[in-house]
Amino acid sequence: MINTPFPAFFLIIVAGAAIALQSPLNAALGRHIGSSLGAATISFGVGFALLLAITLASGDGGRLLDAAHAPRLLLTGGLLGAFLVWATLASVSVLGVLTMSSVLILGQIVAALAIDHMGLFGLVAREVSLTRLMAAGLVAAGVVLSRY
Questions:
Q1: Torsion angle of alpha carbons 117, 17, 49, 45, nearest 10°?
Q2: What CA–CA distance (Å, rounded) separates 38 from 28?
Q3: Rounded Cα–Cα distance for residues 122 and 115 (Å)
Q4: Which of 11, 84, 89, 94 has its CA 20 to 30 A from that of 36?
Q5: What is the sign of the dihedral through the CA atoms of 9, 13, 18 and 20?
Q6: Element at 11 (helix H, strand E)
Q7: Whether 93 contacts 28, CB under 8 Å
Q8: How many CA atoms does the CB half-sphere of 2 hold within 13 Å?
Q9: Among 34, 148, 50, which Cα is nearest to 98's?
């Protein structure tokens, strides 16, 4: 488990780069097979197979059964992830990787402000300060600059 900021920052930087790579790869797969939904399905299938293998190899396979007792809302993350994969691969060819990534980050920041403010899902509530709003505004400005 990650307990300090530096490894967490590094992990998220790598994950951000993976999103930037994943979108054009999935879009190319979609063009190749003639279906953006099919490409998203294949992407999720490959990811599922890898995660299942790692989960089983780590000895956590039995934990998967505990999901049957989880509140249904907690199982919607997969739906959101599937939508993310499809939306990025459907948009990257029109927007380009930089603009698509910038708009994606802006959406994340706007949602994050609301989630933090309300303290959803057991998180500590954090105020929507002027500084945080300015950070969101700078990202919005970056969206404009990335496109025009």
A1: 80
A2: 12
A3: 10
A4: 11
A5: positive
A6: helix 5-33
A7: no
A8: 9
A9: 148
C-alpha atoms less than 13 angstroms from C-alpha of 126 in its C-beta half-sphere: 12
Assigned token pair, 27: 């879009």
Quick one: which H or E segment has residue 67?
none
Q: Provide the residue ranges of all domains of the chain, joining segments of one domain with +.
A: 5-147
Q: How many CA atoms lie within 13 A of 78 on its CB side?
A: 11
| Residues 6+ away with beta carbon under 8 Å from 11 | 2
E strands in 1-147: none
Angle between helices 5-33 and 77-118 (to 10 degrees): 140
pLDDT digits (tens, 9 = 90+) for 92-148: 999 999 999 999 999 999 999 999 999 998 899 999 999 999 999 999 999 999 988
Share of the chain above pLDDT 90, in %: 84
